[in-house]
Write a structure and sequence with these properties.
Blueprint lengths: L1 H34 L4 H15 L4 H22 L7 H41 L2 H7 L4 H39 L4 H9 L4 H27 L4 H31 L2
Helix pairs in contact: 2-6, 3-4, 3-6, 4-6, 4-7, 4-8, 4-9, 6-8, 8-9
Length: 261
Amino acid sequence: MIDLFITLYYKFAKIIKTPLHLLGLISIFTFNTIRSFEKPLVLMRLTVEQMYYTGIQSLPIVILSSASIGLVTVFQAEFQGRGIIPELYIATALVKATLQELAPLLTGLMLSGRIGAAMSAELGTMKVTEQIDSLSVMAINPYRYLVLPRLFAATLVTPLLTIVSIVSAIIAGYFLATTTMNILPVTFIQGMKLNFAPIDLFGGLAKATVFGIIIGLSGTYNGFHAEGGAKGVGKATTHAVVTASLLILVADYFVARIIFK
């Protein structure tokens, strides 16, 4: 009986210890990243470079996916409300859903798969090939040179791409509604203005900013802690994408409760 109790105790302690240990590592990583902030001009140049790779090159996938969501939203709104709600509210539903939820969430998940994976794979490869250790030997802070530019780029790019996502979804929905559903352009535009509040836009962008921080931290942290050669890099990349996606879904709820209460 005592042996069983001891076994259960150690298993329970291990379950508790693992997430606490991980939280401690992430906290130390975040602290080292914040502490490394200096030389703003150099950091700005590196951040702009990362914004190009993470932002400009992500435009096609964001535009296509957002346009698809806009088409589906308008179609479903018209289908579900056919004969029940006025056509005016189809545009209202599209704008409300896109601004508050669909655009920031879709953009965050898309970028977690593209940016987060790229960051983790790149930094993971540098880690297992000891390039990061070489930077430290040359008195170059790897957190300032590698982590901060990627974190800033993800934080800045995500809300900017969310704006692109909003515009793409609304334009696609507009063309579908006015060309195949016989909804007048003036009716659609009036519906867009109906019940619009600035908090819808600012709330969505606030969500996107939080998602960008999550993507940047998850991608860089997992890349920095990759080990075990090519297999370790693949594992770190998988962890980066899965962790960022789950945290985005969780953060989406809590940020929405704070902003849209």
